[in-house]
Amino acid sequence: MGGLTDDQVQRFQRDGFLVLESFASPEEVQRLRSRAEELVDSFSPESVSVFSTKSQTKSTDQYFLESASNVSFFFEEDAFAEDGSLRQAKALSINKIGHALHDLDPEFCSFSRSEKVAAVLQSLNIRRPLPVQSMYIFKQPKIGGEVRPHQDSTFLRTDPPSVIGLWWALEDATKQNGCLWALPGAHAQGVARHFIRKEDDTVTFDKDLPEYNTEDFVPLEVPSGSLVLLHGANVHFSYSNTSPQSRHAYSMHVIEGAPGTNYLPDNWLQRRSDLPFEPLAMPQAA
Question: For residues 66 and 282, what is the distance between their CA atoms, to the nearest angstrom?
Answer without folding.
Answer: 29
